[in-house]
Design a protein that fits this description.
Strand order of the largest sheet: 1-2-3-6-7-8-9-10
Largest sheet: 8 strands, antiparallel, barrel
Helix content: 10-25%
Shape: globular
Distance between the termini: 35 Å
Length: 182
């Protein structure tokens, strides 16, 4: 339920912003890469569709996967992704081969809020962590940001009996600019 509320808050926030240039979901679709020294972080984004969840309107969805290689050795490879998230199978997208779920306002944004399913760190027992933001800076530049503290807050805010949750970090960069390669 908190994730649904987060999605609606994100939609409200994004719909209240007016930007000089309008982008569509198609501008985000593709393969994006960040390279630093011996590390290559790759993100693949595709158009996504929610199945058996009729409550999200006027939004566009992106689903994605990622990979990390260090010194030419692939240490994480989650690029085989599905384009449909079936809520009848549960809300844990990573169990359906979706490792990034992003939502934006249809045709009116250069920004998508996202939930990340880090397969090594497994935030909230693998249920993912929100607090991510994808911002299109230019047609070939995408800012990738994940705020772990915000994600923890979104998950536990209002929960009186939730245990204290400490940040555990990410297995991927948390604030970088990716370049479109495909």
């Amino acid at each position: 339920m908190r994730r649904i509320i987060f999605i609606f808050i994100t939609i409200i926030f994004l719909s209240n912003n007016v930007f000089g240039q309008s982008y569509t979901v198609n501008d985000f679709v593709g393969t994006w890469r960040y390279t630093s020294n011996d590390t290559v972080f790759t993100v693949v984004l595709i158009k996504g569709e929610d199945s058996n969840f009729p409550y999200i309107i006027n939004t566009e969805r992106l689903f994605g996967g990622y990979s990390v290689s260090i010194n030419g050795v692939l240490v994480d490879n989650y690029l085989n992704i599905n384009s449909v998230l079936d809520y009848d199978l549960g809300c844990n997208a990573s169990l359906q081969n979706i490792y990034i779920t992003a939502t934006g306002v249809r045709g009116r944004t250069h920004e998508y809020g996202f939930t990340f399913y880090d397969q090594r760190k497994r935030h909230f027992d693998g249920k993912g962590i929100s607090g991510g933001n994808l911002t299109l800076l230019a047609p070939n530049k995408l800012k990738w940001e994940i705020d772990e503290e915000a994600g923890i807050w979104f998950e536990i805010e209002g929960c009186e009996d939730c245990p204290e949750v400490s940040p555990i970090g990410f297995s991927v960069p948390n604030n970088v600019v990716l370049t479109k390669v495909e």
